[in-house]
Amino acid sequence: MNGIKIRRALCLCIIPILLSLLLTACGGNKLSGTYYSTDGISQTFAFKGDTVTMSAFGINATGTYKIDGDKITISYSLFGIPYDWQQSFSKSGDSIYIGGTQFIKE
């Protein structure tokens, strides 16, 4: 029972971080490559085809993503619990912005 509570608490802490890292391209374009956060916290988004792997604090979550205008939606599962996460999105040069956080392409 405690394991489930700890996992849920961890998910609730990690989800906002992962959400702020969500990456997408404008106009429904697909993203490719790995993007790193610039805020001093080790966060990455790795895009390939329709999939994205989000990494933060040693935890990885892989799912699918969709860009719709200035929003990105990432659907993934963490510790067996499914999530749909939506954030603001924009792209400028080699940078993407998810939930207002800048990520630079490697």
UniProtKB/TrEMBL annotation:
This is DUF5640 domain-containing protein.
